[in-house]
Amino acid sequence: MLFIFDMGGVCCNTWKGTDRICEVLGITKEDFERFYGKKTENDLFAACTKGTIDTSVFWKEFNKASGMNVNTDWFHFLFHPVMNEKTVKIIENLKKAGHRVVCGTNTISGHYQNHVENGDYAFFDQTYASCLMGVAKPDPAFYRFILLAEEAEARNTVFIDDRIENVESAAGTGIKAIHFTSPEDLQKEIDKITG
User: Fold this and answer.
1) From residue 133, how far is each of 78, 129, 161 by CA, in Å?
2) Secondary structure of 32-75 in the HEC alphabet?
3) What span, in angstroms and rounded, lies between the C-alpha atoms of 166 and 10?
4) Distance of CA 77 to the CA centre of its chain
5) Mean per-residue pLDDT for 62-70?
6) How does residue 15 score in pLDDT terms, banded at 50, 70 and 90?
């Protein structure tokens, strides 16, 4: 069986660095979001997540919009994920039981690089990062990409994510989808599937 785990919010704590970036830059969160075009057709962060641009381009465009001169990839240097050891143990046990376990994550190049440097993807058989795939959750193409690459069928695949919209989207493709709330609850759900 193929298991696809989300990274942020499941295997590690979620990104909460926007406040730190704003503090370093001396701007409000509202201004930061306005400068990068949050939830507009020109949303720079969304473009980073899909790999259309990398974080160096994000900051160049951010500088144009803000009139600032940011030369540091603060997404990378202020990102310090902490792994959820209980979830990691579940993954290790699944692999010992002969299952293939991969990471399916929405991420940006600065965060991806940080995870690689920390060895955070090392316990997976493969990592599928949106910034390298060109597609992000909850787009159903994200899950189809992984199924194609893994030569797996949806009915033999389990997806775990903390965001309900991603869980619902995965389920819509025929994948068994689990909404992550805690490692303990996740283990119960996995036991029902593999038991």
Assistant:
1) 24, 6, 18
2) HHHHHCCCCCCCHHHHHHCCCCCHHHHHHHHHHHHCCCCCCCHH
3) 13
4) 17
5) 97
6) confident
- pTM comes to 0.95
Of 157, 148, 92, 154, the closest CA to residue 125 belongs to 92
Contacts of 6 (CB under 8 A, 6+ apart): 103, 104, 105, 106, 137, 160, 161, 162, 163, 166, 180
CA distances from 36 to 32, 44, 110 (A): 6, 5, 16
Quickly list DSSP for 77-136: HT----B-HHHHHHHHHHHHTT-EEEEEE---HHHHHHHHHHTTTTTSSEEEEHHHHT--
Identify the pLDDT of residue 103.
98
The pairing of beta strand 2-5 with beta strand 100-105: parallel
Q: Are 48 and 54 in contact (CB under 8 A)?
A: yes
For residue 180, which phi and psi values (nearest 5 degrees)? Answer: -75, 125
Token code pair at residue 129: 């990062």
Percent of the chain scoring above 70 in pLDDT: 100
Q: Is 182 left (phi over 0), alpha (psi -120 to 50) or beta?
A: beta
Residue 1 CB coordination number (10 Å):
17
